[in-house]
């Protein structure tokens, strides 16, 4: 076993990549050297790691010749092409993209929920979808204690979830919109950018592409990834999951309205609140009298998942509503990735 590792961040110049750099710098991983990789466009760019200047390199299979650990967030196509090359060269890869998540041989891991799955890895570990991570983090203690029959989730997802370019696009649209608009402006021009419709001052009930059945791929990911993470045992009873995913004009921080039904109808809001408050990485923010509830603006820059607005459904015993918020770039991506890597090192699974 090595006592220091060469770590590569693939996609280092992106929205998630920039957080991977800062999360790695704050981590307990013993580091010999860091390589920052991106596309040809960014080769030569200078980035900082712990006060040291590192020059970004164009990623290629040979980039991984001397690498022990890869933290990857350069899109699914890049992961599919380069991560098997990294594994071939002896590296262990933690991948943020959806490329390998549903591969039955690849563990899909949220530390604190199912890190035991890490021991089954064959070189690649998948980091779940950002919306899935915060939801399973909040539901896992409830599931462990009372079982879950059904989850119905509606998401309110920040534009940074669609990458740095989407954030730039919304900022430009917002500037235009606020400059000299009449009270009832017509639809903004899209400028032929990444999104078909304006992101600023709008709601888009579409994240990722549409599937044949009318669900979007983001909704599909939330449904299937949730089951893969929570239902570790082959004989665990099925959980019914359905989702509606919506892009909202928020910079950072996904919100989720979650309606869930537990197996044990005797569970109460009070007990659920106690359980959430006692669970590491969860923060209960729930005091209607003080108007205390989770908000994206407060979750930004934090590693925890914030939970509030817990209510029992008076017309359906055993059913509850809650509101969950987390920083999609940290809790939903970079912090989870680096926590996975820390577990690999701690459990000697590198
Ligand atoms: N944003 C989020 O909330 C989350 C994102 N993810 C996933 O993480 C991945 C990255 O997302 P995000 O950071 O938002 O995206 P960005 O668009 O902000 O960043 C993409 C990164 O990938 C690099 N890249 C693009 N093409 C190549 C290539 N051919 N070879 C090497 N590097 C390349 C880019 O480099 P360059 O600067 O050179 O173009 C950039 O560093 C996606 O797969 C996304 O699905 C997962 C969970 C949450
Ligand atoms: N789709 C998420 C972010 C993301 O990239 O997810 P995934 O890694 O599952 O494609 C969002 O737009 O908010």
UniProtKB/TrEMBL annotation:
<keyword id="KW-0791">Threonine biosynthesis</keyword>
<keyword id="KW-0457">Lysine biosynthesis</keyword>
<keyword id="KW-0560">Oxidoreductase</keyword>
<comment type="subunit">
    <text>Homodimer.</text>
</comment>
<dbReference type="GO" id="GO:0004073">
    <property type="term" value="F:aspartate-semialdehyde dehydrogenase activity"/>
</dbReference>
<dbReference type="InterPro" id="IPR012080">
    <property type="entry name" value="Asp_semialdehyde_DH"/>
</dbReference>
<feature type="binding site">
    <location>
        <position position="328"/>
    </location>
    <ligand>
        <name>NADP(+)</name>
    </ligand>
</feature>
<feature type="binding site">
    <location>
        <position position="247"/>
    </location>
    <ligand>
        <name>substrate</name>
    </ligand>
</feature>
<dbReference type="GO" id="GO:0009097">
    <property type="term" value="P:isoleucine biosynthetic process"/>
</dbReference>
<comment type="pathway">
    <text>Amino-acid biosynthesis; L-lysine biosynthesis via DAP pathway; (S)-tetrahydrodipicolinate from L-aspartate: step 2/4.</text>
</comment>
<dbReference type="GO" id="GO:0071266">
    <property type="term" value="P:'de novo' L-methionine biosynthetic process"/>
</dbReference>
<keyword id="KW-0220">Diaminopimelate biosynthesis</keyword>
<dbReference type="GO" id="GO:0051287">
    <property type="term" value="F:NAD binding"/>
</dbReference>
<keyword id="KW-0521">NADP</keyword>
<dbReference type="Pfam" id="PF02774">
    <property type="entry name" value="Semialdhyde_dhC"/>
</dbReference>
<keyword id="KW-0028">Amino-acid biosynthesis</keyword>
<feature type="binding site">
    <location>
        <begin position="13"/>
        <end position="16"/>
    </location>
    <ligand>
        <name>NADP(+)</name>
    </ligand>
</feature>
<dbReference type="InterPro" id="IPR005986">
    <property type="entry name" value="Asp_semialdehyde_DH_beta"/>
</dbReference>
<feature type="binding site">
    <location>
        <position position="182"/>
    </location>
    <ligand>
        <name>NADP(+)</name>
    </ligand>
</feature>
<dbReference type="GO" id="GO:0046983">
    <property type="term" value="F:protein dimerization activity"/>
</dbReference>
<feature type="binding site">
    <location>
        <begin position="41"/>
        <end position="42"/>
    </location>
    <ligand>
        <name>NADP(+)</name>
    </ligand>
</feature>
<dbReference type="GO" id="GO:0050661">
    <property type="term" value="F:NADP binding"/>
</dbReference>
<feature type="binding site">
    <location>
        <begin position="160"/>
        <end position="161"/>
    </location>
    <ligand>
        <name>NADP(+)</name>
    </ligand>
</feature>
<dbReference type="GO" id="GO:0019877">
    <property type="term" value="P:diaminopimelate biosynthetic process"/>
</dbReference>
<keyword id="KW-0486">Methionine biosynthesis</keyword>
<dbReference type="Pfam" id="PF01118">
    <property type="entry name" value="Semialdhyde_dh"/>
</dbReference>
<protein>
    <recommendedName>
        <fullName>Aspartate-semialdehyde dehydrogenase</fullName>
        <ecNumber>1.2.1.11</ecNumber>
    </recommendedName>
</protein>
<feature type="binding site">
    <location>
        <position position="157"/>
    </location>
    <ligand>
        <name>substrate</name>
    </ligand>
</feature>
<dbReference type="GO" id="GO:0009088">
    <property type="term" value="P:threonine biosynthetic process"/>
</dbReference>
<feature type="active site" description="Acyl-thioester intermediate">
    <location>
        <position position="130"/>
    </location>
</feature>
<comment type="function">
    <text>Catalyzes the NADPH-dependent formation of L-aspartate-semialdehyde (L-ASA) by the reductive dephosphorylation of L-aspartyl-4-phosphate.</text>
</comment>
<feature type="domain" description="Semialdehyde dehydrogenase NAD-binding">
    <location>
        <begin position="6"/>
        <end position="121"/>
    </location>
</feature>
<dbReference type="InterPro" id="IPR000534">
    <property type="entry name" value="Semialdehyde_DH_NAD-bd"/>
</dbReference>
<comment type="similarity">
    <text>Belongs to the aspartate-semialdehyde dehydrogenase family.</text>
</comment>
<dbReference type="InterPro" id="IPR012280">
    <property type="entry name" value="Semialdhyde_DH_dimer_dom"/>
</dbReference>
<dbReference type="GO" id="GO:0009089">
    <property type="term" value="P:lysine biosynthetic process via diaminopimelate"/>
</dbReference>
<feature type="binding site">
    <location>
        <position position="101"/>
    </location>
    <ligand>
        <name>phosphate</name>
    </ligand>
</feature>
<dbReference type="InterPro" id="IPR036291">
    <property type="entry name" value="NAD(P)-bd_dom_sf"/>
</dbReference>
<comment type="pathway">
    <text>Amino-acid biosynthesis; L-methionine biosynthesis via de novo pathway; L-homoserine from L-aspartate: step 2/3.</text>
</comment>
<feature type="active site" description="Proton acceptor">
    <location>
        <position position="254"/>
    </location>
</feature>
């Amino acid at each position: 076993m090595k006592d220091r590792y060469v770590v590569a961040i693939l996609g280092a110049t992106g929205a998630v990549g920039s957080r991977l750099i800062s999360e790695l710098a704050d981590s307990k991983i013993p580091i010999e050297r860091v390589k920052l990789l991106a596309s040809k466009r960014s080769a030569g760019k200078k980035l900082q790691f712990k006060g040291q200047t590192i020059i970004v390199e164009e990623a290629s299979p040979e980039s991984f010749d001397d690498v022990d650990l890869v933290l990857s967030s350069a899109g699914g196509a890049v992961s599919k092409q380069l991560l098997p090359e990294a594994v071939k060269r002896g590296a262990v890869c933690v991948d943020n993209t959806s490329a390998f998540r549903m591969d039955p041989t690849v563990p899909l891991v949220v530390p604190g929920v199912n890190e035991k799955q890490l021991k089954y890895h064959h070189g690649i570990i998948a980091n779940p979808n950002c919306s899935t991570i915060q939801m399973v983090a909040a539901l896992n203690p409830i599931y462990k204690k009372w079982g879950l029959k059904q989850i119905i989730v509606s998401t309110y997802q920040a534009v940074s979830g669609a990458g740095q370019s989407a954030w730039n696009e919304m900022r430009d649209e917002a500037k235009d919109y606020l400059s000299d608009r009449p009270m009832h402006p017509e639809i903004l021009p899209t400028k032929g950018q990444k999104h078909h419709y304006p992101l600023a001052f709008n709601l888009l009930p579409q994240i990722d592409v549409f599937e044949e059945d009318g669900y979007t791929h983001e909704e599909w990911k939330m449904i299937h990834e949730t089951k893969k993470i929570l239902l570790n045992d082959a004989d665990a009873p099925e959980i019914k999951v359905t989702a509606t995913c919506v892009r909202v004009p928020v910079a950072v921080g996904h919100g989720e309205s979650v309606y869930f039904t537990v197996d044990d109808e005797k569970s109460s809001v009070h007990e659920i609140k106690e359980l959430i408050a006692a669970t590491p990485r969860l923060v209960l923010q729930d005091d209607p009298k003080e108007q205390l509830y989770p908000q994206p603006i407060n979750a930004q820059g934090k590693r925890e998942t914030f939970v509030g607005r817990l209510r029992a459904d008076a017309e359906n015993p055993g059913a509850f509503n809650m509101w969950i918020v987390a920083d999609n770039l940290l809790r939903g991506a970079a912090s989870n990735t680096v926590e996975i890597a820390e577990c690999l090192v701690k459990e000697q699974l590198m």
